[in-house]
Amino acid sequence: MRFDVLTLFPELFAPFLQAGVTRRAYESGQVQVQLWNPRDFAEGNYRRVDDRPFGGGPGMVMMAEPLARALATVRAARGDDGAPVLLFSPIGERLDHAGVERWGAGPGAILVCGRYEGIDQRFIDRFVDVQLSLGDFVLSGGEIPAMALLDAVARLQPGVLGDEGSHQADSFNPALDGLLDCPHYTRPEVWDGVAAPAELLSGHHAQIERWRRDQRLALTAARRPELLDAARSAGRLSRADEALLAKLGKKHL
Ligand code: 9D3
């Protein structure tokens, strides 16, 4: 699948695309990424891509025309495949696992990264299908959110993670019942006077799995009770799970 990214700072993506387990997905072309700078589509000696906001106020606004030209070139390069145009914006809908699966399927997408105070609304109204946000905090632009989506999509591709099973264990993969992940430990068995949980050192597979499941249930009950409710409604909690939760309830944890 293919992602085209419109950004005034394409150089921010280079180290990201060249590092970590997701690199394989980009280098193999399993997830193709092409970067486009709207400045290369801007007019005049100054190649202006932004201007002062009509009506006044702080900051600058990205002009519609350089973005529209860049987008037209991207669409032609993609063979007008109908890929959706996603704009990263603080007023967008929150990106979650369902969104990653949705936008990480099919032909891929065209990602538009905003900078400054925002983008001329006429570009958004004409071309943007969906606006996506990472959450209620302020970034300097849409580049990190675009990389977040690309990273999440890359790790869903078969063979990208070293251990094939790793993403099966991710908290928001429904295959793992939508519970938060359990704590992890590694050598040494005692670090700075603190022992790793005895259950994990027992060598008893069933005991280890029960400990992990109990940890996940307790953590999810404490931090994300709505995820636990969803797991219960979907029939993903066993009688042993319910017994553990009842015990936790009595302890007022
Ligand atoms: C008070 C006006 N600001 C809105 C919070 C203006 C503004 C600040 C920062 C407009 C754009 C930006 C740049 N942010 C993004 O482009 C962005 C973003 C974010 O800031 N937080 C979470 N998700 C995202 S996705 C894109």
Automatic annotation (TrEMBL):
CDD domains (alphabetical): TrmD-like
Location in or out of the cell: Cytoplasm
Binding locations of S-adenosyl-L-methionine: G114, L134, G135, D136, F137, V138, L139
A Pfam family assignment: tRNA_m1G_MT
Catalyzed chemical reaction(s): guanosine(37) in tRNA + S-adenosyl-L-methionine = N(1)-methylguanosine(37) in tRNA + S-adenosyl-L-homocysteine + H(+)
Domain called tRNA methyltransferase TRMD/TRM10-type: residue spans: 1-229
Enzyme class: transferase
Keywords for the protein's UniProt record, in alphabetical order: Cytoplasm, Methyltransferase, S-adenosyl-L-methionine, Transferase, tRNA processing
Ranges in coiled-coil conformation: none
Keyword tRNA processing part of the UniProt annotation: yes
GO biological process, one term: methylation
Molecular function terms, GO-annotated: tRNA (guanine(37)-N1)-methyltransferase activity
UniProt KW Transferase keyword: yes
Family classification: Belongs to the RNA methyltransferase TrmD family.
Functional summary from the UniProt entry: Specifically methylates guanosine-37 in various tRNAs.
Self-association state and partner proteins as the record states: Homodimer.
Protein name as it appears in the record: tRNA (guanine-N(1)-)-methyltransferase
Native source organism of the sequence: Ramlibacter aquaticus
Gene this chain is encoded by: trmD
